[in-house]
Design brief:
454 residues; alpha/beta; 4 domains; six-stranded mixed beta sheet; two-stranded antiparallel ribbon; 17 helices; 14% strand; flat
Length: 454
């Protein structure tokens, strides 16, 4: 290789690494220079593959990723994509079944398949050939860039060996585990499965903040009152000026007319997210949308360093994570939700109160409940009215403890449901009630969260 060829190769490999979706390269110009100098030296001593060897020597430790194995695999994959496949002899020359940019979609599909299988009267192992044969007639979609569509041979026919190799690739990357319980996502796989949401969340939060700045641009030292603000922080002079400009008497002032001193708050913000995963949530992919929305909210909370607790509830509620800032762990708990049993909102509220009671006092504590309908978990000693009274009583206790509660209900076109109970919870809990389509769930959750920001 000439020195010019070495320069082009180093720049090409480093350029691809800059665009790699699961890793970032630190100081790319120095990395390219180090790779170029190493490649020239290796070429002088007659190395068989100076591009791959120099890349493996100089690049893996410069990547930001989750493990050394992943970084080495990333470099091998990028070099394999840059070089002609016939230009070197290596096991890595065999192309991957799953292109790197499609891995989040494949993991999302695996998670959805696990939900679907869990809601069936019998279990299937996703890695078995029998499951593959059953699924190939119903789940293969040539137009979809997902696992079953990618598991086709050169003639476009379903190929179990290729499908199995795709699962082994995911296992080798540390994204899934294959055990007697079937194919499940690892904690690392859970983060990758939701990673594609990050850019969307950042854009949505940026748009929300821009709209807020436009609506709050009253002065340099005040802004519009938001839910969660203290009344002692109301800026009296700015509020009166606003009312005079609007020609509105003080007796008719509303919360939106109040202006608050725009000073930084040091109080803590704690968020409890309770997600319904009853049988009905499996219909119309409502549970999948709920998982996406929960992950989006965790990403948003991570940007503000807010504490988040995560609760899953069906016939009983389970605290999947206490209040924490370990956002990667929180994401890994989301994929544990599987559709089962009934809807017990009362227990979800009790667990939400318990998880916040253990934390230090002060600050703002808010609970967001995601469900698709009315409470359905009953016992022989309680009527539906008794259950409703117990839920309202629990909400009142939480409100007296300074905990606000919002409820977001997912609209289901296949089932008529009354949402009076959910509206009552939000009213007593001094939060908000929303009825949305599953596709709009994430937007509504972010709207509710940002309306409570300090």
């Amino acid at each position: 290789m000439t020195e010019q060829q070495c320069r082009v190769a180093a720049a090409g490999v480093v350029g691809r690494l800059r665009k790699y979706p699961f890793a970032k390269i630190r100081i790319g110009s120095r990395a390219a220079l180090a790779m170029y100098e190493t490649m020239v030296s290796l070429d002088l001593v007659g190395a068989e593959n100076p591009v791959l060897t120099s890349a493996m020597i100089t690049l893996p430790h410069r990547l930001v990723s989750d493990s050394v194995i992943d970084r080495e695999r990333i470099v091998q994959e990028v070099v394999a994509g840059y070089l002609d496949p016939q230009g070197y002899s290596s096991a890595e020359a065999e192309p991957s079944v799953i292109p790197t940019e499609r891995i989040p979609e494949v993991l999302k599909e695996l998670d959805a398949l696990r939900d679907m299988i869990h809601s069936m009267p019998y279990e299937m192992d996703l890695s078995s050939e029998s499951c593959f044969r059953i699924s190939r007639d119903t789940l293969f979609r040539a137009e979809a860039p997902r696992l079953f569509a990618l598991s086709r041979d050169a003639r476009g026919r379903p190929d179990y060996q290729r499908y199995r190799r795709a699962l082994e690739e995911l296992k080798g990357r540390g994204l899934v585990r294959m055990d007697p319980e079937g194919v499940t996502l690892t904690p690392y796989g859970s983060r990758v499965r939701f990673k594609s949401l990050l850019k969307d969340i950042e854009k949505q939060l940026s748009r929300t903040q821009s709209r807020r700045r436009m609506s709050d641009s009253v002065s340099a030292d005040s802004r519009t009152y938001r839910r969660g603000d203290r009344y002692r922080d109301v800026h009296t002079r700015r509020t009166m000026r606003h009312l005079v400009k609007r020609g509105r008497p003080v007796s008719e002032a509303r919360a939106g007319d109040l202006r608050v001193k725009d000073v930084p708050h040091s109080k803590k913000f704690r968020l409890v997210l309770a997600v319904d995963h009853s049988w009905s949530m499996a219909r119309s992919k409502k549970l999948q949308y709920a998982k996406e929305a929960a992950a989006g909210l965790i990403y948003a909370a991570a940007g503000k360093r807010d504490q988040v607790a995560f609760i899953g509830f069906s016939d009983e509620a389970v605290i999947l994570s206490p209040l924490s800032r370990n956002y990667g762990y929180l994401l890994s708990r989301i994929v544990l939700l599987r559709p089962k049993n009934e809807t017990n909102i009362a227990d979800a509220l009790r667990k939400a109160a318990a998880v916040t009671r253990r934390s230090a006092g002060g600050g703002v504590t808010h609970v967001i409940v995601i469900t698709d309908g009315v409470p359905t978990s009953l016992d022989a000693t309680r009527t539906r009215r008794d259950l409703g009274d117990a839920i309202i009583a629990q909400t009142e206790r939480m409100r007296k403890a300074g905990i606000t509660v919002s409820v977001i209900c997912i609209r289901d076109d296949l089932e008529e449901a009354s949402f009076e109970q959910a509206m009552g919870i939000a009213e007593v809990g001094r939060g908000s009630f929303s009825l949305v389509n599953a596709e709009d769930l994430m937007n509504q959750m972010l709207k509710d969260y940002t309306s409570l920001e300090r």
